[in-house]
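Recall that a protein's primary structure is simply its ordered list of amino acids. Everything else, from secondary elements to tertiary packing, is in principle encoded there. The following example makes that idea concrete.
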Amino acid sequence: MSKNQLELLKQMTTVVADTGDFESIRAYSPTDATTNPSLIFQAAQQPQYKHLVDEAIRSGNGNKNEILDRIFVNFGKEILKIVPGRVSTEVDARLSFDLQGSLAKARHIISLYETAGINRSRVLIKLASTWEGIQAAAILEKEHIHCNMTLLFSLTQAVGCAEAHATLISPFVGRILDWYKKNTGTPSYTPAEDPGVRSVTSIYNYYKKFGYKTQIMGASFRNKDEITELAGCDLLTIAPALLSELNGCTAPLPRKLSPSTAASLPIEKIHLDEKAFRWQLNEDPMATDKLAEGIRKFAEDIVKLEALFGIS
């Protein structure tokens, strides 16, 4: 019997479920799972998860920041009962430009997991790929607090994260495509020419060319073709609807990304300090726009969570 594309993908790429819904995670048996404020906001409104929210409100003792942290960790703990690997839990997006605030929040989230008996090796702390977020990751990684760098849209951000020895980056494929479709007047792209696919491919090749240990997890997909074009990427985090499409398709799935191919490419090394990082990011209108928009959106969903449970 022919293997479906999800099974084939799992042979070359670690598949991660991009959801806060436990039943979807069980259905597709991913290795890891990742969440963000938007996903938790959606999941927290479902009646079957009310007990996780109620427990957080009880144990948070009226402190809204503590309640939010516990909501996120409670969902993470339940996810870790299902997946064999790791869960990603996000630092409040409103701390994206606050180094010390990000450090304090990350350490507190890890302490909540460890108090629950979960080793920090099974948790990835998600930080926005701002300059401050990258500096936080550099410090946290030295404390064996592993980081997943999110809202990443450019090679500049990716290089900064790799130099900080972040465990993982999550470049946002679909959001890059959204920007180009909106701002260039191009209504569609072939899978190989998709700007998000090309961005992740360039990051992958750069990392493998220069031997960085930071892993790449493509995220935010708009269609199945974006996923199959990145077959061979270290990890891919995929929403349930697209996991279902892969599961139902038995077409061949050739490997598109490989370390050996990357090693043969003529790629120049990039050297960054803070000034160079900020300038190069500023010179990339897509990355600048999508980073700012992503921070605002995640912050808005945190405010919605606070309002939903009367903790604002």
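The CA atoms of residues 120 and 145 lie 7 Å apart. The two ends are 54 Å apart (CA to CA).
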